[in-house]
Amino acid sequence: MKGIFTISLDFELHWGGFEKWPISLNNVQLQKNSYNQYFLNTRKVIPLMLSLFKKYEIHVTWATVGMLMHANKTQLIENFPDLKPEYKENKLSAYHYIETNGIGEDETNDPFHYADLLIQQILTTPNQELGSHTFAHYYCNEEGQTIEQFRTDLQAAQKAASRYGKKLQSLVFPRNQFNNDYLKVCFDEGIKVVRSNPLDWFWNIQSTQDESLWKRLNRGLDAYFPVGKNNTYKLDELIRVQNLPLFLPASRLLRPYRKKELFLNKFKIDRIKLEMERAARNSDVYHLWWHPHNFGNFSEENLIDLEAILKHFSYCKAKYQMQSLSMVEISDNFSTNHA
Asked: 252-253 and 285-290 as β-strands: parallel, antiparallel, unpaired?
């Protein structure tokens, strides 16, 4: 069996951190607001990412927040689920944010909360899969929410995706809050495969609130130094439980370029290339992920790093016959090989 390289992207724009990232809708182009510019840069960089994926024939899963799958507020509100998450911390609810802060009427005057035009570009680029990041950036481990609220969230996400003629089959849990109890719901609502966390203890994320600084430090160090376990694996090692999605572990978070870390930036990219080549040589899976908005600062430098990684995939493809597959393609490949 050939090695597999897969990329999954947590596509969320402002929905990924509305409780902590201030933006202004009074003047969308406001340069002084760093988060306004950050997300405007993100919107500009996504088509450039897509061009690279097309150039190097890279199959990518875009795990997309369902709220982004609308062109205007009317469409969005029509897709709201009947049951909404009742978090103990109200600030974590996207619906609470809309009620207290408001959002714009459409993508033109609010490019932070709608992404219809970008999603259309994604879907017209070869080998790109529209996946789910839940409808309202749903936190599965936060106190107050229930499994039935999660179910209606996924149903709303499927309804939103149907606007594009798509059925969501892959899912990434927001903030990597992986919850085994909710996997049956995922399967019931059409999800074939979910991205699970690396096996390292510091990727066991129980809550967005008061997470250990020691865990975050170790996750950061692991990008540069061998803190964690071997992060490539064989497809045959995965286990699919009947009536549950396939668990597809992440291998590596591509951390963004940092201006003051020139040596570490190179070390980080070299480490990814070494891990990818090890996967290619051993016929393993290598699963890279990040958020598109991670390229919102130092966009040019991040794109250079990305192209270096994709060029190395081309090398691995030529030398070891490594293949690029999306999450759902891996799931389908696994089902074929284990029929």
From this structure: parallel
CB half-sphere exposure, 311, CA atoms < 13 A: 8
Scanning the structure block, which residue is given the tokens 């199959």? Answer: 59
Domain residue spans of the chain: 4-337
Stretch (H or E) spanning 264: helix 262-282
- Other C-beta atoms lying within 10 Å of the C-beta of residue 77: 10
Please tell me which residue, 28 or 191, carries the higher pLDDT value.
191
pLDDT digits (tens, 9 = 90+) for 257-296: 988 777 778 889 999 999 999 999 999 999 999 999 999 9
Res 336: pLDDT: 53
CA dist., res. 79 & res. 82, Å (int): 9
CB-side exposure of 279: number of CA atoms within 13 Å? 30
pLDDT at residue 196 in the model: 87
In this structure, CATH architecture of domain 4-337: Alpha-Beta Barrel (3.20)
| DSSP assignment letter at 72 | B
Q: What Rg do the C-alpha atoms of the chain give, in angstroms?
A: 19
Of 1, 3, 2, nearest to 279 by C-alpha is 3
Enter the tokens of residue 149.
């609220």
Six token digits for residue 219: 């996750």
The pair phi, psi for residue 281, each rounded to 5°, is: -65, -35
Q: What's the rounded Cα separation, in Å, for the pair 14 and 41?
A: 12
Residue 158 host element (H or E): helix 147-161
Q: How far apart are CA 81 and CA 149, in angstroms?
A: 9
Residue 204, number of CB atoms within 10 A of its CB: 12
What is the distance between the terminal CA atoms of the chain, rounded to a whole angstrom? 16
Of residues 300 and 178, more confidence is placed in 300
Tell me: the pLDDT tens digits for 192-229?
Answer: 999 987 665 444 555 455 555 644 555 555 655 565 56
The fraction of the chain above a pLDDT of 90, given in percent, is 77
